[in-house]
Amino acid sequence: MSKQSVEVVSLKSTQADLKHSCIFTGVPVSKTNGEHVIPNWMRTAYDLHHLPVEMGETLQFAKVKEFRAPAESKANNDFGKVEDKVRNQGASLDELHLWSKKIAVGMLWNHWRLSANERHPNAPSPFDERHLRFALQNFQEEFKLWRENRYVRTGSTVILPRDIEGISLAHAFGATVNEGYSMTHDAIQPFGYMAISYKKSLIVSSFYDDKTLEEGGIRGQWEESGLKAEKEIARIRAGLSTIFAEHATKAISEFAEQEVAFDDLFKLIAYQLGIVVLDDKRSYRLRTPEDA
């Protein structure tokens, strides 16, 4: 991950820019324009429109259909070509990675938007806004390369087999900031993971990692742990949390030049994936509204 840490001084957009800039290109758009973060074909096929989205420390805050992000019409239509390939199971790994990143960035943008409403009793907890700025800039640069037929993914994407049908999305994110990176500014090292189940496959992506998750034996971990045949959702989420936390712990430790505790990061990522790790650090359960 360290190769893609960013000097925060280069990210100067204002809050107004974030609210009304196209997630694909960064150009200003009207408030009426919007891209569904979860594709319409996926929402329709699996009747997701009114399902709640669990966000950080808050359960059932927003419905899937409410997750929209500002988007310029031409860019949105262009990206529809990728959406169509994913729907028809004809997308390359590069295209699956870009598609997963678009969903992750859209979810991040909506989390930021909803957390800004401090008066709402169920607003999700805020996060470092610099992470969102980094994620948007990174996705917009890669979308531009895709439009120019020059895109090659810089992060990991693997397709893992599973024995159960259905759809689910799991998104985990965070960032480490190196304050005082230089005399004038800080540096930020984000991490982001997305797991999307579609039919009998699980599309797993890690962003900003130079493919280290993809090349680090995730397929072997998946097979050896028995998660391919697992039908219990809590164990699948806990298994993914372990894989993500191990990967993030190593990368963040390298960036920070000091050891980062696995247990704390595991609890954070597991919670984002809907799992509560119990005090013995070996047991876990699905998160409930009482945990908020």
Characterize this entry briefly:
The chain has 292 residues and is of the alpha+beta class. Helices cover 39% and strands 20% of the residues.
Mind explaining what this structure looks like?
This protein is an alpha+beta fold and 292 residues long. The protein has one domain (2-209). Helices cover 39% and strands 20% of the residues. The chain has 9 helices and 11 strands. It has helices spanning 15-20, 40-45, 73-87, 93-115, 129-147, 212-215, 218-224, 233-256, 262-272, and strands spanning 6-7, 35-36, 52-55, 58-63, 68-69, 156-161, 168-178, 187-198, 201-207, 275-277, 284-286. Strand 3 (52-55) and strand 4 form a beta hairpin. Helix 3 crosses helix 4, helix 4 (93-115) packs antiparallel against helix 5 (129-147) and helix 8 packs across helix 9 (262-272). The protein is globular and about 50 Å long.
- Stretches where pLDDT is under 50 for at least 5 consecutive residues are 1-13
Report the principal-axis shape. globular
Q: End-to-end distance, in Å?
A: 31 Å
Quote the beta fraction. Answer: 15-25%
Domains, number: 1
Q: How would you classify the helix and strand content by structural class? A: alpha+beta
SSE pattern, N- to C-terminal = EHEHEEEHHHEEEEHHHHEE
**Average predicted local confidence, pLDDT:** 82
Question: How many helical elements?
Answer: 9
Write down the oligomeric state: single chain
Q: Biggest β-sheet: count, sense, barrel?
A: 5 strands, antiparallel
Q: Give the helix proportion (percent range).
A: 25-40%
Rg calculated over all Cα atoms: 18 Å
| Total beta-strand segments | 11
